[in-house]
Amino acid sequence: MKILVCISKAPDTTAKIAFTDNNTAFDTNGVQFIVNPYDEWYALVRGLELKEQNGGSVTVVNVGLAENEPIIRKALAIGADEAVRINVNPTDALQTAKEIVAFAKAEGFDMVLLGKETIDYNGSQLGGMIAELMDMPYVSLASKLEMEGTTATIHRDIQGGTEVVEVTAPFVISAAKGMAEARIPNMRGIMAARTKPLKVVEGSGANASTTIANYELPPAKGECHYIDADNAAELIELLHNEAKVI
Amino acid sequence: MSVLIYANTANGKIHKSAFEAVAYGSKIAADLGTNATAIVIGACSDAESLGEFGATKILHANDSKFNDFDPSIYTQVVVKGAEAEGADVIIFSHDFSGKSIAPRVAAKLDAGLVSGAVDYPSTANGFTVKKAVFSGKAFANITINTDKKVISLLPNSVDKSAKGGSASVETFSPEVGAATVKVKEVIKESADLPLTEAEKVVSAGRGLKGPENWGMIEDLAKELGAATACSRPVADMDWRPHHEHVGQTGVAIRPNLYIAVGISGAIQHLAGVNQSKTIVVINNDPEAPFFKSANYGIVGDAFEVIPKLVEAAKAFNASNH
Ligand SMILES: Cc1cc2nc3c(=O)[nH]c(=O)nc-3n(C[C@H](O)[C@H](O)[C@H](O)COP(=O)(O)OP(=O)(O)OC[C@H]3O[C@@H](n4cnc5c(N)ncnc54)[C@H](O)[C@@H]3O)c2cc1C
């Protein structure tokens, strides 16, 4: 079973969000970067579990510049066999998808796994785009994935419930909570990651379709209006008369 | 040129978020001086109701082969609908349906996609759409540079009231390829309304001490007509189901009212909820960081405060508001 896991770089969840260059660029000053949690905790770990059960290999791919290599090594330390970095600084998901497909097309992967979204742009776009460009089935927001030969049984989140669906490999899946338990890399993994192959390939020249005009921070909240605990009922009146939300 | 809106269904009826998407797309169409067509796929008994939200035409792909939600097939239907209507702007809801199909449609049409839009596009300088980024900690204005444009709208973002009006429903029977996804079973959870679409949410955290204490949270939610949510440790400890976990690594929500009980207000929790219109924090620690993001705060023991609120909400409901 040949498994491809797409990983994205994301700012640490505690990072201060600020912008520079007239609010046109994310201020990376002092920001720690991590593997996007959905990619790491769910897609990568489930890929590794499937490989452990069925044999095969797990390749991670990242579209980004050399500065991304520490997070790629982290994925190798968790257990991926090899990594590919496509040497392009992408502007949007469609460009990223085209670059991944340009590399993955000829590789014969049985499945492509990725997280349901990144915690920076929250797009939920890449998986569907890869699936369309590779003409593969796509199951988004998957919380469970079992393989039986080339048939996958998948739980996907739908409104107000879960649907159990079946697809045949090759396919693309976006992973949500429930898919696997996060793994912490051990010393052996970290040592091994240093010598695992990390191949750098040049991009295919795909263009982006969107550009970020600028960023905004949400307006600051006003003062908190405190209500005495003994007089909690007053809250209901305020929510009705003042906030007008009930 | 026209605007095409994919209206998703649930249990054979138009889903709530689809009305908002149609209202949104119709406003865009009016601003662009063109028409809004809605497209419905699979069994649906009330497709014509979309006319009240501004659609002037409704395409219904009602063949039973469309009853299973197969993103590959649905993509083909939407793309054929866009071709038939000459649509340059295609709208989805940013829920499970839009997340599954909008990226495929965008890739197929080689169109720029803004997912999770929170406002109408601005056409003053190109075609720019605002969306929340960094899990709600900021917004980005994103310009779509392609001729064809795809947007998925975050639920609860724009006016979704019915405007009156009507539309004819036409059967739409495009040729599509073979099915790729076979639905074997549907497991219903109790919540009929997904958390992302609830207008009021009562949420509780580790301060509640154990799952046996959630009765009062459910009571308050019931009196207020709210959905229930929880912090991550609460879901991780299996006190509550995972789909209730809100925050940066759970569900991001923006209801009109978010009541947080016994939740400290960690940055990862705030990320998923701080765009709520009104935030109420109930915590026995006056130093809890959540109070900094609150509109209303009660410093007190949840086990004393919540029963009082339940009584007050009951009295409020009984007084015929
Ligand atoms: C990468 C990463 C991602 C994360 N993602 C998320 C996420 O998506 N969502 C999320 O929620 N968390 C997330 N977290 C966890 C987050 O950092 C916090 O640990 C978590 O939100 C705390 O949950 P809590 O507020 O319920 O518990 P606690 O922090 O333990 O807070 C309990 C609160 O209850 C109060 N309390 C106690 N007793 C009472 C009482 N009797 N009456 C009233 N109040 C009382 C306390 O004063 C305290 O403020 C993430 C963490 C990491 C590292």
UniProtKB/TrEMBL annotation, chain A:
GO MF annotations, alphabetized: electron transfer activity
Q: Which GO terms describe its cellular component?
A: cytosol
Query: Among its keywords, does the record have Transport?
Result: yes
Tell me the SMART domains matching this sequence. Answer: ETF
Which Gene3D superfamilies does this one have?
HUPs
Which branch of life, at top level? Bacteria
**Keywords tagged on the record:** Electron transport, Transport
Give the matching Pfam families.
ETF (PF01012)
Q: InterPro entries, from UniProt?
A: ETF_a/b_N, ETF_b, ETF_beta_N, Rossmann-like_a/b/a_fold
Every Electron transfer flavoprotein alpha/beta-subunit N-terminal domain range = 23-210
Task: Please state which protein family the record places this protein in.
Answer: Belongs to the ETF beta-subunit/FixA family.
What is the protein name given in its UniProt record?
Answer: Electron transfer flavoprotein subunit beta
**Protein species of origin:** Acidiluteibacter ferrifornacis
From TrEMBL, chain B:
The molecule here is called Electron transfer flavoprotein subunit alpha/FixB family protein
Note on how the cofactor is bound:
Binds 1 FAD per dimer.
Say yes or no: keyword Lyase present: no
Give the Electron transfer flavoprotein alpha/beta-subunit N-terminal domain ranges. Answer: 3-191
Give the family this protein belongs to, as stated in its UniProt record. Belongs to the ETF alpha-subunit/FixB family.
Q: A Gene Ontology molecular-function term?
A: flavin adenine dinucleotide binding
Q: Which residues bind FAD?
A: 206, 231-232, 262-269, 283
Pfam families, per database record: ETF, ETF_alpha
Give the keywords, sorted: Electron transport, FAD, Flavoprotein, Transport
Name a single GO biological process.
fatty acid beta-oxidation using acyl-CoA dehydrogenase
Q: Which cofactor does it need?
A: FAD
